[in-house]
From TrEMBL:
It comes from the Bacteria. Keywords: Carbohydrate metabolism, Hydrolase, Polysaccharide degradation. InterPro entries: 6-hairpin_glycosidase_sf, 6hp_glycosidase-like_sf, Glyco_hydro_9. Residues 2-53 form the Glycoside hydrolase family domain. GO terms for molecular function: hydrolase activity, hydrolyzing O-glycosyl compounds. The keyword Ion transport does not apply. Gene3D superfamilies: 1.50.10.10. This is Glycoside hydrolase family 9. Residues 1-23 are annotated as: Disordered. The keyword Hydrolase applies. It comes from Prevotella heparinolytica. SUPFAM superfamilies: Six-hairpin glycosidases. GO terms for biological process: polysaccharide catabolic process.
Amino acid sequence: MPVPGFLVRGSNPGRQDGVSYPSNLPDESYADVEGSYASNEIAINWSAALVALASSLDALMAK
């Protein structure tokens, strides 16, 4: 089980993991289940922008 709070990728029309998705439409092919690696990918490159934004806002608000 992943650590809560990470930013995940989101919809992925490729569905490479064999999970049943609610739709075949690219923007609706998301399943929030543990085995859905295609739509729940957690990687540093997905979370890095969120961390940079949060850090920047924190630094600006501290002034």
